[in-house]
Each structure stands twice: as structure tokens, then as C-alpha cells.
Design a protein that fits this description.
By secondary structure, the protein is of the alpha+beta class. Helix content is 42%, strand content 23%.
Amino acid sequence: MAPKHAPDNPRARTVDRVLTRLGSVVTSVVYPLVAVGFLVFVIVDLPSMLRVAHDEGIAGTFTVTRKECRAWYEKGGCSTYGDFVSTDGTIRRTNVLFENNPGRVGTQVPGQYLREDPPMIYAQGSGQWKFSVAIGVAAIGYLGYRLWRLVRRRPATSETDE
């Protein structure tokens, strides 16, 4: 296959340099910002996920009232909504989202409520915190790698680099 641009074409070289620089900006700025965003998500989300893992929420029963499934995702891409009633009957929430897929409409499962806004019901002993920790570790690892690349001394590759 022939090259797209002639090597002696200055305009083609300029376009290639711009595209190379754009790729460099994406990897140097955009990716680290995305990693920082994930890290902020984890820092905000992890305390409530640990409370859920230790069953510190308000215990009750969740009843599935409807499921919204995405046709483009064949393997269970459904959101489950329903009603939550605390064990003592003092707290009732309707049309709330459940963290995972407990079953068909009418199914009742134990759940817990953390008084969040928007309200969400979690399974007893939820392991959702593991996902948050994995995302946090990946973000920290990526940011550490980028920092290491930024501060490490690069060896000279030619006489003019020294």
C-alpha cells in the first residue's frame, strides 16, 4: 500500500505533526483527568459501599415492581425498580432502584436503605465495594505510572540530546 502523503509534502508533514501532538495531549491530559474523575468517584462512593457491606443500612424488604431492560444488551442489562419497606414498617420508599437484579416482578428480597438521595436499595452484605476499590486501584496505578513517566530521567538517544 502506498503512503498517504508524499514524504516531501510540507502540508502532509504538518498534518502528521498536528495529529501526533493531539494524541500526545490526549494521553497526557485527558486520560489523567479521567483517572482523577474515577478516583473522586471512589472516594465519594466507598464509605457508603463499606456501610452496605457491613449491613449498617436500614433493613427491610424490597419488592420488584418493574424492570427496564435495554434491547441492545442481551445478557441482563436491566434496571430493577420496586418498593422498599423497613422491617419495622416506619420507612417506605416507592419506585426505588435496587443495586442488582433480584428476579422477576413480584419477587421479594431482603435489602437495606442508606437514606441516600436519590434513594437506592442494596442487597444485604453487598460486595459492591470491591468494584469501587478495583476502580480506585486502577486509577491510582495509572496516575502513578504517568507521574513516574513524567519525573524519570530519559536517557540521551543521540549526541544532540546530551
